[in-house]
Amino acid sequence: GLGLRCGGAAPRPLAPAKHVFSHIEWQMTGWQIELGAQATPEGFLWAGEAALRAEYALPGAFKAYKPLLEAEFSPKTGKKT
Predict the structure, then answer these.
(1) 63 contacts 28 by C-beta, under 8 angstroms
(2) Residue among 75, 80, 71 at smallest CA distance from 32
């Protein structure tokens, strides 16, 4: 495992997505899980909205999931980090 405490929360599969490289096609399923506050496992970091927008790039292969990430930061959800 990753060393995260899930507290009984179950991962939720996201909609399937596809990314095509010049020579290979990825069929992907993203996963979402809400975790309570906890220490960061060694080798990992937690990044909030500002850091995700300004410091960390989302790999192009995952662009299908960017709208879902944006929705998490939307004021209407009340889930700003």
Answers:
(1) no
(2) 71
Task: Output b/e per residue, 2-15; b: 16+ Cβ within 10 A.
Answer: eeeeeeeeeeeeee
Provide the residue ranges of all domains of the chain, joining segments of one domain with +.
50-81
Structure tokens, 75: 């004021």
The CA distance from 69 to 46, in Å, is 14
> Does 22 score more than 50 pLDDT?
yes
pLDDT digit string (tens) for 24-66?
999 999 998 888 888 888 888 888 889 988 999 888 888 998 8
